Amino acid sequence: MTTTRTSPLLTDLYELTMLAGYHHHGMHREPAIFDLFFRETPFHGGYAVFAGLEPALDALENLRFNSEEIAYLESLNLFSADFLDELARFRFTGSVRAPKEGTPVFANEPILSVEAPLAEAQLVETLLLNIINFQTLVATKAARIVRAAGEAQVLEFGLRRSQGPDGAMSVARATCIGGVGSTSNVLAGMKYGLPVKGTHAHSWVMAFDDELSAFRAYARSFPDSCILLVDTVDTLKSGLPNAITVARELRQQGHELLGIRLDSGDLAWLSRQARRMLDEAGFPGVRIVASNELDEEVIRTIREEGGRIDIYGVGTRLATCAGRGGGALGGVYKLVAIRNQPKMKLTADIAKATLPGRKDVWRLCDENGEIIQDVIATPGEQPARGMTVYDPVNPTRYRRLEENFECRPLLDTVMRDGRRTRPAPSLDTLAAFCHQELDHLPQGTLRSVNPHRYKVSISPALHELREDLRRQMQT
Amino acid sequence: MTTTRTSPLLTDLYELTMLAGYHHHGMHREPAIFDLFFRETPFHGGYAVFAGLEPALDALENLRFNSEEIAYLESLNLFSADFLDELARFRFTGSVRAPKEGTPVFANEPILSVEAPLAEAQLVETLLLNIINFQTLVATKAARIVRAAGEAQVLEFGLRRSQGPDGAMSVARATCIGGVGSTSNVLAGMKYGLPVKGTHAHSWVMAFDDELSAFRAYARSFPDSCILLVDTVDTLKSGLPNAITVARELRQQGHELLGIRLDSGDLAWLSRQARRMLDEAGFPGVRIVASNELDEEVIRTIREEGGRIDIYGVGTRLATCAGRGGGALGGVYKLVAIRNQPKMKLTADIAKATLPGRKDVWRLCDENGEIIQDVIATPGEQPARGMTVYDPVNPTRYRRLEENFECRPLLDTVMRDGRRTRPAPSLDTLAAFCHQELDHLPQGTLRSVNPHRYKVSISPALHELREDLRRQMQT
């Protein structure tokens, strides 16, 4: 499987004009650190699931300007020949630190940090945001849906409502990290090794003279993987009785009907009726698949009402990350150090200030491995019991770390000198890791509506640094 | 510029299992017609802007299975060797009828119709929906924003919040058809010939010791295209005074500051203050750019409050098609004829019934070219004054065409025997066409909130056909 080339022109023009400016002023090689973080958890939820790292590292490793791209930039009459020569030789040579994909992450903590010469670190801003923002958002939505579905399986089929071909590929990949086990997208199945699943469309039924003939024909073609869509005519009066007829015929031939799919109407009620009809006919093993504008809230309601659905097919609302606080993850990428000096953006809106300097993020766990909170610290500083830690946004709020805890660093060096430090983990591994980490979060944080706010604090030294810089800037 | 190959595996698995089934039952070559349409106008608005046709035609012309893809399908153990041989020889040989991109289109009318052997028409369902749904949605959002902005320009910079790399490319392309004149996405600039625009980021200011030094440096690098971001420290107390200082210095050197950008705070109020300060300092020509979670509703409010913004930079909410009734266009693709027999889906939910058979769509205009309504008709049937036409969803609602009108067909044959019938029009042409067509819509239809419902009717013969089929199916 070849990697699709990501063009370095997939960037906002201002990255290139800033690069040209840095070059013009001889600043392009100054060492810089940028942090990628978000300020609000998506879906008004308690957590986000970090995703998109491996595609981002692929893009960084292979970022090159080709001659057609240089010629295009020349045609804009904005850039000097010197600068274009520099671009033609461009390589990303920096380091990247990040958590493993699948890690639950929270507002205000760095989820990716780039250390590189200023020009290189600046150029990759748009690219990193494009990949990380969307995949993290989708992985989060997927995790929310999977947790709402409980024991039932979730199948992704958002291809027809995603943002074009590779929007759909990103959806399938990130969705898998968030715990969705299979997809209808065949290309994603091939590229990412995901199980592919499907049933048939209404058009199959309409292509035959009647529903029963259509069902029989499908069962003849796929006797061992037959899932029949039962709502083309009338779910309970036509679809179910015909499906049961076909299930009996299949059984006489030594096969079992795999399932039926409901795609309209009151899914909670219809699934209870369908379950009863199938059970009474002697088919307790036939599974019930449901689809139609599902998301975590609808699924939760269906389960509360005693719906009997075994597999939820989730499309539009997953692929578009619909819902309150959804649609986009507002990740930003901010300069935090240059020439080895910490930098901070200070604005009238305190919530938009940034945390200065190189930082580590520590995740604190109790003796049972249950996650307590995160602490953002300066290099070399490790959280300890009794330490006073501060709110990352509001410097007047603080608390003491009273608990016994162990702590582990969240950010690993995943790229050094422009090369990956280790091979990409498999999506299966990442999905299992995500599942396990979420299970160790405080229960209230997992609640899908009005969750408990997971604590992210900053260390005393980082607090001091921030206060010092604030004082310097305000004088 | 080479076209990126679209893999035929970019499809839902069920398309392939249905294909295998049709092949198994010897139905794959039966002539079929499928219509693509939507049931609800996005954003609760009065119209949608049709887009995505040319990329869809590109994909259809080049749809081929390669050996790696066939081998992958073989590995699924779902498909016979015969069928896989057939796939290896797959070509799309059908016809496509559609409006020109940029055409305002409405609920329940076909916006694309495919006539092809059943297998071919079925296989392309997911691909067509993926491309047309999203581009039409974005073009519509763009048109809404452009109309809200009035005389001000609109600049697209949604790259960092779109669904991955080519999500962003689709956004830039469709946005242009909807009337957004320029983009920050450099690759889209190159690929689609769009003007690229940009300013600089907060990081530019932070990379220098102070804001004034940063502004001076940027102005030295780009003396004739300098737009300064003024909110890094404090918009009115620091950003504007420093920008004015630099504007004076530039003027002494024979250049003019191009603009300033506001990216936070109360944009209506700040833009009025900024305009006053710039004017008083002798810089009435410096343009004011604004950004920060803008969309048609925010822009309208800013203008109502007397905001003085010359250029709106629109990102997240455009790229994600945010807003009430946004997020996704629910386009569907339904079988309407097979073996030259009209087909209709009849469900308990009357709104989900389909219109049977091959159809033309006529657009009726008055003597001044003002658009009156659309009529969906059977082949050979043309709307005439005095004709009784029916609601496309509710057969008990009808009206007489009382007006004098001329009418023109909306659907052109854009592909025949699997080849385009004409070259792709330029995006400029499509954008101009869209602008002009929207101007001829009934005024109430253009209203962004609670618009007048544009009339789409069905002809007497189509009404009869629907009633006949309904009676047949209900007996």
TrEMBL record, chains A, B:
Stretches assigned to the Nicotinate phosphoribosyltransferase C-terminal domain: 358-465
Domain spans labelled Nicotinate phosphoribosyltransferase N-terminal:
9-133
For this protein, the record's Gene3D superfamilies field holds: Aldolase class I (3.20.20.70), nicotinate phosphoribosyltransferase (3.20.140.10)
Biological process terms from the Gene Ontology for this record are: NAD+ biosynthetic process via the salvage pathway
Q: Which GO molecular function annotations are given, in alphabetical order? A: nicotinamide phosphoribosyltransferase activity; nicotinate phosphoribosyltransferase activity
Q: Fetch the CDD domains from UniProt.
A: NAPRTase_A
Give the top-rank taxon of the lineage listed in the UniProt record for this protein. Bacteria
> One matching Pfam family, short form?
NAPRTase_N
Family matches, as InterPro entries: Aldolase_TIM, N/Namide_PRibTrfase, NAPRTase_C, NAPRTase_N, Nic_PRibTrfase-Fam, Nic_PRibTrfase_pncB, Nicotinate_pribotase-like_C
Q: Which UniProt keywords apply?
A: Glycosyltransferase, Ligase, Phosphoprotein, Pyridine nucleotide biosynthesis, Transferase
EC number annotated for this UniProt entry? 6.3.4.21
CC terms in the record's Gene Ontology section:
cytosol
What pathway does the UniProt record associate with this protein?
Cofactor biosynthesis; NAD(+) biosynthesis; nicotinate D-ribonucleotide from nicotinate: step 1/1
Q: Does the keyword Transferase apply?
A: yes
PTM statement from Swiss-Prot or TrEMBL? Transiently phosphorylated on a His residue during the reaction cycle. Phosphorylation strongly increases the affinity for substrates and increases the rate of nicotinate D-ribonucleotide production. Dephosphorylation regenerates the low-affinity form of the enzyme, leading to product release.
Q: Which reaction does it catalyse?
A: 5-phospho-alpha-D-ribose 1-diphosphate + nicotinate + ATP + H2O = nicotinate beta-D-ribonucleotide + ADP + phosphate + diphosphate
Record flagged with keyword RNA-binding: no
- What's this protein's function? Catalyzes the first step in the biosynthesis of NAD from nicotinic acid, the ATP-dependent synthesis of beta-nicotinate D-ribonucleotide from nicotinate and 5-phospho-D-ribose 1-phosphate.
NCBIfam families from the entry? NAPRTase_put, PRK09243.1-2, PRK09243.1-3, PRK12484.1
Family to which the UniProt record says this protein belongs: Belongs to the NAPRTase family.
Task: Please report the name of this protein according to its UniProt entry.
Answer: Nicotinate phosphoribosyltransferase
Q: What are the top taxonomic ranks of the organism? A: Bacteria, Pseudomonadati, Thermodesulfobacteriota, Desulfuromonadia, Desulfuromonadales
